[in-house]
């Protein structure tokens, strides 16, 4: 969906998590084994045809991608090498990709550019520009930073029925407190709970009973 003039386009975060909130290496054993993580590929056994990747933004359709360095390197090493008729590869390869990195200076993947300097300022400026909504996929460190700056407008979280016991989490210690409002939810045949949330201000406090 194209943003209208004067309208700030949305920044949407889409991620897979375990029941204990871990988002590290959902796609395969070699995806991200850092910090001795040995359970990569934990989503594999739960896929079924009723899970709509596009609805949650995981395929990047009609959106520009915002990626952290690690996720960019994983994607750039995989998607350009897939068959041209692969629909996700076709979308990822064609769309604009904005990469948050302090170390990468030049990017080889088609339509990729580095968000230099202050990533919060860079994303704020991107949101104010006309264009498609912005989609974060994976990129846990980047999500932490942008969540703290209140820049994420929607969270699409698919929670898998596994407990991983350790690894990089969607919200680490120090995340900015805040309420979320559930806007949609469904459950796959394999037990994956697929939810969409939007920020809803401060957490209302009280005493039960």
Q: What low-confidence regions span 5 or more consecutive residues with pLDDT below 50? A: none
Helix-strand pattern: EHEHHEEHEHEEE
Find the count of extended strands (DSSP E, 2+ residues).
8
What's the Cα radius of gyration? 17 Å
Chain oligomer state: single chain
Mean pLDDT: 91
| Percent of sequence in beta strands | 15-25%
Major beta sheet summary = 8 strands, mixed
The CATH C-level name is: Alpha Beta
CATH architecture assignment name: 3-Layer(aba) Sandwich
Our measurement of the CA-to-CA distance between the termini, rounded to an integer number of angstroms, reads: 45 Å
Q: Tell me the helix content.
A: 10-25%
What class do helices, strands and sheet pairing give?
alpha/beta
Order the strands across the largest sheet as they lie in space: 4-3-2-5-1-6-8-7
CATH H-level superfamily: Dihydrofolate Reductase, subunit A
- Return the domain count: 1
Set down the secondary structure blueprint.
Layout: E1 11-18, H1 53-56, E2 63-68, H2 69-76, H3 87-94, E3 97-100, E4 112-115, H4 119-128, E5 133-137, H5 140-148, E6 154-160, E7 180-187, E8 193-199
Parallel strand pairs: 1-5, 1-6, 2-3, 2-5, 3-4
Antiparallel strand pairs: 6-8, 7-8
């Amino acid at each position: 969906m194209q943003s209208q003039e004067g309208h700030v386009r949305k920044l949407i975060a889409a991620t897979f998590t375990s029941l204990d909130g871990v988002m590290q290496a959902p796609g395969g054993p070699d995806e991200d084994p850092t910090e001795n993580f040995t359970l990569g590929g934990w989503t594999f056994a739960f896929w079924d045809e009723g899970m709509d990747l596009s609805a949650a933004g995981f395929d990047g359709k009609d959106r520009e991608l915002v990626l952290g360095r690690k996720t960019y390197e994983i994607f750039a090493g995989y998607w350009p090498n897939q068959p041209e008729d692969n629909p996700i590869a076709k979308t990822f390869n064609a769309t604009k990709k904005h990469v948050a990195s302090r170390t990468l200076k030049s990017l080889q993947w088609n339509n990729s550019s580095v968000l230099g300097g202050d990533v919060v300022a860079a994303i704020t400026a991107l949101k104010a520009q006309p264009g498609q909504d912005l989609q974060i996929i994976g990129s846990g460190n980047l999500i932490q930073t942008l969540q703290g700056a209140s820049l994420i407008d929607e969270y699409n979280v698919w929670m898998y029925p596994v407990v991983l016991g350790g690894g990089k989490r969607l919200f680490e210690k120090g995340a900015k407190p805040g309420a979320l409002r559930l806007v949609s939810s469904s459950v796959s045949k394999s037990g994956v709970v697929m939810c969409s949330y939007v920020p809803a201000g401060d957490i209302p406090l009280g005493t039960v009973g």
